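Consider the tokenized backbone below.
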């Protein structure tokens, strides 16, 4: 098949998820003159914070820069949810050992336990608020890209299992076809306590719940500056100035120069996803028999799985570090997908889209307060559970309803000398990582 014919008629560059839950201005109200808590950004982080505050009787208003709610990463992601088993995954290793090196054993343990708790919180939120987001607790398979990665994963299993109680075990290569009909991996790690959901429906569900609880929100309300005034703040927005007692920043990969201190600590990286056309249910089932979310151990990772109707494969990854066109990145992803599943060579693509995630220099999400502004940011590509949790934790902290401080609270949020928030180095670093991934395979 030539690359030109991989596109189905009517190929769209918007998320497949938007077919169910398109971005909308529904429920938006005019910007108020004052509010108790001003929340910047209407992704999972901001909305969860608003929901929690409203439930505690604290007045919260969410400011969204865009003309509609739901255009950030929270409606664009792969919908994979897990209990923090990749927390702190960095160059030095996978999971807990990296965390321990950075934070010390006690703090690492507390953070991992809280990450596990955050997964339960998302499940409870979905139940409590009756959010129909096709939640599917299918578990996850992390495929080892080379045999050495299998050994590395195996070394971390014990600690991860004891830290998260997530049903973590190893699956050797000879049994791999039980989970994925591909020979591309060298065995891998299974994480039972994880799953998949429809991200845009989750976003809509949290937004509706926040409004039901009494939170208010505006679109076309980009926050352009936050200034201290007396004991509170003046929040300057594109739709007028607002007085607020507290300010929350939850802008993640979309953080602009107006939040310069945060921007200098975040590296916005594009992630990309394609959706295949409808395939036969039998074919989709055969490729991923138990419907697990699949990820791999490459530096430039891929993540994929069945769509919830079991008719498509959704395949995601860092197809480009240079902001390529949706068509080119879709072609690249299609190539990556057929490397894993050669039988999908003739499957055409109906949707190919992108969105920004935010990496941090220590590979950890960050939560705390700077210059009086509360924040939760830096999902490192894994924020469905994390940002929903940290947003909720921010709400509890401000409403003073927390049982105990979050283990994420106040961890130093590092930057690098001369970094201004413009990741000019990404194409170089990205290509270097890609080269290292290829080298790993050659040497394996
Ligand atoms: C393609 C892709 C795949 C992903 N896959 C997964 C996955 O499978 N599993 C997983 O756990 N995570 C995944 N993620 C990450 C996850 O989607 C994010 O971590 C999460 O959605 C971040 O939520 P948030 O609320 O912090 O930010 P966002 O949802 O990005 O929202 C930030 C909002 O802030 C607004 N904003 C910015 N500046 C201003 C301002 N000055 N004033 C007002 N508003 C402002 C933006 O317009 C935006 O709406 C993926 C991300 C992408 C892009």
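A designed sequence for it:
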């Amino acid at each position: 098949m030539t690359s030109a014919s991989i596109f189905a008629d009517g190929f769209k560059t918007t998320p497949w998820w938007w077919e169910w839950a398109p971005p909308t201005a529904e429920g938006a109200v005019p910007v108020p003159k004052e509010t108790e808590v001003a929340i910047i950004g209407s992704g999972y982080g901001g909305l969860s914070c608003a929901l929690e505050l409203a439930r505690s009787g604290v007045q919260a208003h969410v400011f969204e820069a865009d003309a509609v709610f739901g255009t950030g990463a929270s409606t664009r992601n792969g919908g994979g949810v897990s209990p923090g088993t990749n927390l702190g995954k960095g160059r030095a290793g996978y999971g807990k050992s990296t965390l321990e090196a950075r934070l010390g054993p006690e703090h690492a343990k507390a953070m991992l336990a809280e990450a596990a708790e955050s997964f339960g919180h998302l499940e409870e939120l979905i139940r409590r608020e009756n959010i129909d987001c096709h939640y599917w607790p299918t578990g996850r398979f992390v495929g080892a890209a080379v045999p050495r990665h299998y050994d590395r994963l195996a070394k971390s299993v014990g600690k991860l299992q004891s830290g998260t109680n997530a049903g973590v075990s190893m699956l050797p290569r000879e049994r791999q076809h039980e989970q994925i009909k591909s020979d591309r991996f060298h065995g891998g790690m299974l994480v039972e306590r994880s799953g998949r959901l429809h991200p845009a429906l989750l976003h809509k569900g949290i937004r509706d719940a926040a409004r039901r609880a009494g939170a208010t929100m505006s679109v076309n309300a980009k926050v352009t500056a936050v200034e201290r005034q007396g004991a509170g703040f003046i929040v300057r927005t594109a739709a007028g100035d607002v007085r607020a007692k507290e300010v929350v920043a939850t802008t993640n990969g979309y953080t602009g120069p107006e939040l310069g201190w945060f921007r200098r600590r975040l590296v916005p990286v594009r992630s990309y996803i394609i959706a295949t056309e409808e395939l036969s249910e039998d074919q989709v089932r055969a490729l991923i028999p138990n419907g697990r979310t699949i990820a791999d151990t490459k530096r430039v990772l891929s993540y994929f799985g069945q769509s919830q109707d079991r008719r498509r494969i959704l395949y995601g990854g860092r197809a480009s570090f240079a902001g390529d066109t949706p068509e080119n990145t879709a072609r690249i992803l299609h190539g990556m997908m057929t490397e894993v599943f050669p039988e999908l060579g003739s499957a055409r693509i109906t949707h190919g889209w992108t969105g920004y995630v935010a990496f941090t220099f220590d590979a950890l999400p960050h939560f705390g307060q700077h210059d009086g502004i509360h924040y939760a940011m830096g999902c490192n590509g894994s924020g469905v559970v994390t940002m929903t949790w940290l947003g909720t934790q921010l709400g509890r902290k401000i409403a003073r309803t927390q049982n105990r401080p979050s283990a994420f609270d106040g961890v130093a949020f590092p930057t690098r000398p001369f970094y201004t928030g413009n990741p000019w180095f990404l194409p170089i670093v990205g290509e270097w990582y890609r080269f290292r991934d290829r080298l790993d395979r050659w040497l394996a």
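Residues 90-95 have pLDDT under 50 and may be disordered.
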